[in-house]
Amino acid sequence: MATLNVLILVCLGYVVLLFGVAFAADRMAAAGRGKWLRSPLIYTLSLSIYCTAWTFYGAVGNAARSGLEFVTIYLGPTLVMVSWWWGLRKLVRIGRSQRVTSIADLISSRYGKSNTLAVCVTILAVLGGTPYIALQLQSITLSFSIFAEADPSGLYREGSSVFWVAAGLAMFAILFGTRNLDANERHHGVVTAIALESVVKLFALLAVGIFVVWGVAGGIGPMMDRIDASEIGQWNVDAGRWTTFIFLSAAAFVCLPRMFQVMVVENDDEGHLRTAAWAFPLYLLLMSLFVVPIAVIGLDLMPEGSNPDLFVLTVPLSQGNDWLAMLSFIGGFSSATSMVIVTAMALSTMVSNHLVMPIWLNMQEGSGSVSGDVRNIVLLARRVSIAVIMALGYFYYSLSGGGTALASIGLVAFAGISQILPALVGGLFWRGATRTGALVGLSVGFVLWIYTLLLPGMGAAWMPETVLQNGPFGLGWLRPQALFGIEGIDPMVHTVMWSMSLNTIAFCVASLLSFPSPLERLQGAQFVNVFDHSAAPRGWTGSVAQSEDLMIMTQRILGAGPAQEFFQSEAEQQGGRSRLPEPTPGFLERLERELSGSVGAATAHAMIGQIVGGSSVSVEDLLAVADESAQMLEYSSQLEVKSAELSRTARQLREANTKLTQVSEQKDSFLSQVSHELRTPMTSIRAFSEIMRDTQGLSAEEQTRYAAIIHDEALRLTRLLDDLLDLSVLESGQVNLNMGDDSLRSVLDRAVSSALAGTDQQLSVRRSLISERIPLHTDLDRLGQVFINLISNAQKYCDAAEPVLTISAHDVGGQVVIDFTDNGSGIPPEAQSMVFEKFARVGVDKVGGAGLGLAICREIMQRLGGEISYLPGQGGAAFRISLPLAYRQAAQ
Amino acid sequence: MTDAGDSARKPLGSKPSLFLERQSYRRRRMTDAARLLPFLGAALLVIPLLWPDETVESQAVPLSSAIFYIFACWGLLILVSLFFGLTARRLGRRESPEADAD
Fold it and tell me: Membrane-spanning regions, if any (chain B) (predicted)?
């Protein structure tokens, strides 16, 4: 009853259902509804595109041939999922933070956005993917043919059916896989359809399994007995193949473009991995639970020589259970279609982003503004790529004739795509991995894979028998299936062992020997330390004029609406009023990432580079990213310097304030001092003149004495007023200097004799006459006045029993320095800073003096261009006078 | 490298910090265990290679036992992984600030 027509009808109905589901899901997602579309369950189910028709049909065939070996293909991914904490979590985080569009994009982005690498990975993926697609087409055709055999009408023609299947799948992929340009936007429609297909294929396989175990064998116990009694009933697994296949399937699970698409690109939430970590292995377990029973029953029931790959279909058919066979057919159909659609989508993204776009960009001859609508070109490229990939698969199928066992093609593809693994793992965990290393490793693995596995598997037309037997040019150690003369290894194990180990070694050695570019190092740090800083490195500098060009280009890639929205929000973030944001490094980085979601990292980098004019990763940037702590250190040391500066200023201010307060007090005391100083002589003058006026009969002697006192006091008063006048003239700067030339010695001679003249007190003056032979050009009288003042001060205030004043003169660095040091007790430290102030007198006013002498000295010395200072710690009072040696110009 | 360290940086001294400390410690050990799981899985799956195969006719392991062993290991891995997934989610939820300040 299961005629071909019914089958085709069911098929079409199923496809229509898929279209409907995909369409509805897209609509719901667009409307913002359907939260369940982003649930971990959908994510887990979408991962199950790992189980292709190869799994659905081929696993049973594999089990019928070699027992439990088939299970390795599921154990590898199980181990990967279980170890999500190691690798997948990081992979997904990087994929999301860098807006990666495909596995080729990830590799290229990690190694300095190198398009060469992306091209290599793309070619590898297409080469490995094409036979795989052919395999799916073959499985659909084979399953059709099973039903066709039973159909008496005989209308079935194999070639045309394959063509229509391929065309239909291509259409589905184009319709739902290229709706939006941004590959990072989730394809909810496709993903939901795939999830549905996952449920269907699991349900179908479980149904067949349950039918076989309970319907045919009669329960678990009898089933186990039949298994043990069958020709595959004993544990017989080659150790090399067992471990190699577990490793291989684990590697392929991560590297396959379609797995990367659903696992990383379509991932909505990192947390989904947590669920998938147990749910996906569970799915795999259920998928493989009934494989061995079906194989064993198939071997029992089916005639000798029937294809074990189709037991899933033929066993229910032979038992007359047509509806179960139909369900099983739909299951296989689901496996094939979902895989083909996602593979075509993933590969087309890679081809358009890494092959078509760079070529197209090159054709633009690096002109600043991009002409034409890039959006349409990218979409067109992607659609054509899907068609071309499907066509390649179709031709591969028709050329190869589809004879080989399903499982072997799948494994060949696995081995090919796994060559990405060293570059991928190295890129995620080793900052020292370089672009050169990745290129070399990838090439070595790729060549070995083609030479030892792909070509020998394609038959004598591609690899002559003589080469297989004796090696190329008779070089025995280069035999494709016995490299380096090591024979007897299973060809699959042989290829995986040599290609993976040499690939890894080449990758490591080339990485160690080469030196990465700055961009590579930045990206390396970003990838390896993705959990530490998810922020992007700054790589661009631009000028305002370029914003408009960027805007034009972005509009052409993202479309006018989203581009304007993006630029507007950026401009608002920058707080500017204009509609165009400043091309700050941060903005350019975000723009690049936005674009890379549509056209891939390498292309987006190149496009922005065309406009902005090359990436400018400076050494400073590199240092900043590579070692953020250095920046922090620098910043904190700057702060320290600033705070030290501030505290220094504060101290200076405090000192200035103290001084100001003192000066103000001095001014007050100056006034009272002046009135006091004037009053004392005035009082005695008045008193004695009153005595002389009022007292009768003063003796002449007395009169003379009183008059002398009055005269003395008047003199003192005059002297005081002279000093005050002198000081005020000096301070106001209106003094006239009479410049003259003489030697220091004669000036000192005159000063000493006039200071000591007419005193009875003994002050011995010690001089070194030789050192005083210094010529001076200065106001000699004023200088003499200073010397006299200092000498008479020593005379007045030196409290030693035998006062001695030492005068020494030196020539120090263009200055004459004259020290006056006595042997008294000196000036107490607290008074030292005040001795040059007016009316400052040290200690009790025991000797008459107005306290103006040193103040005048200081003023004079300033006029003469020198200075006078107190020298502490010389054993007595010590004053130092310094004068310019060749003071030739008169101060005005 | 993991986000497990976040809670460890919260200030000590206040009363809830004891729970947080202990919890982040648990979380870290749980992460360690999750990391070790694939190694356990790999070791379990390599054990069958030590079994005698059909060349040793009398002692060959029947396929039903092999199936039982493999699927038991598989199931064990799934269960442990499920346990880790649930624990991680529970700890992750509790770690979010003020979610349940007990």
Answer: 33-51, 66-86
**CA–centroid distance for A877 within its chain:** 68
Q: Which residues of B touch A531 (CB under 8 A)?
A: 1-3
Asked if B54's CB is within 8 angstroms of A235's CB, the reply is: yes
| A67/B67 CB distance under 8 A | no
SS3 A431: coil
B positions 25-84 inside 8 Å of A (CB): 31, 34-35, 37-38, 41-42, 45-46, 48-49, 51-54, 60-67, 70-71, 74-75, 77-79, 81-82, 84
What is the 3-state secondary structure of A643-700? Answer: HHHHHHHHHHHHHHHHHHHHHHHHHHHHHHHHHHHHHHHHHHHHHHHHHHHHCCCCCH
pLDDT (tens digit per residue) in A71-82: 888 888 988 888
Smallest CA–CA separation between B90 and chain A, in Å? 12
Mutate to test the interface with A, among B46, B61, B64 (most CBs of A within 10 A): B64
> Same domain for A753 and A871?
yes
Question: Which of A743, A759, A709 lies closest to A883, judged by CA?
Answer: A743
Contact B62 A235 (CB under 8 A): yes
Residue A675 and residue A785 in one domain: no
User: Residues A381-406: pLDDT tens digits?
Assistant: 888 888 888 888 888 777 766 555 45
Q: What's the number of domains chain B is made of?
A: 1
- How far apart CA A495 and CA A416 sit, in angstroms, is 10
Looking at the structure, tell me whether residues A726 and A870 fall in a common domain: no
- Taking residues B6-18, report their average pLDDT: 44
Is residue B67 situated within a structural domain?
Answer: yes
Distance in angstroms (rounded) separating the CA atoms of residues A325 and A302: 15
B5 in a structural domain: no
Which CA distances in Å does A379 have to A23, A203, A703? 19, 36, 130
* Amino acid found at A436: T
Q: Which residues of A touch B71 (CB under 8 A)?
A: 285, 289
Domain boundary among A705, A731, A757: A731
Q: Kindly determine whether residue A83 and residue B38, on different chains, have CB atoms separated by under 8 Å.
A: yes
Q: Which domain holds residue A692?
A: 630-731
B85–A274 CB contact, under 8 Å: yes
Distances (CA, A) of B52 to A229, A235, A238, B44, B66: 18, 8, 11, 16, 12
A474 assigned to some structural domain: no
* B8 part of a folded domain: no
As a whole number of angstroms, the distance between CA A285 and CA A280 comes to 9
In terms of domains, do A655 and A789 share one? no
Number of domains in chain A: 4
Predicted complex: ipTM over 0.95? no
Of A83, A243, A281, the CB nearest to B46: A243
pLDDT of B13 higher than 60? no
**Structural domain ending residue among the three candidates A559, A589, A615:** A615
Instruction: Tell whether A722 and A745 lie within a shared domain.
Output: no
Name the residue range of residue B68's domain: 14-52+60-95
For residue A392, what is the domain's CATH number?
Answer: 1.20.1730.10
Q: What is the pLDDT of residues B28-73, one digit of tens each?
A: 777 788 788 888 888 888 887 877 765 655 567 777 788 888 888 8
Q: How far is B3 from chain A (nearest CA, A)?
A: 8
Å between A516 CA and nearest CA of chain B: 24
Closest CA to A295 of A628, A57, A623, A9: A57
Task: Say yes or no: A642 and A592 in one domain.
Answer: no
Q: Which residue is it, tokens 């409290």? A: A799
Is residue B38 domain-resident? yes
Task: Flag residues of chain A having pLDDT under 50.
Answer: 1, 367-369, 405, 534-539, 544, 614-624, 626, 844-846, 887-892
Q: Note whether B78 contacts A246, CB cutoff 8 Å.
A: no
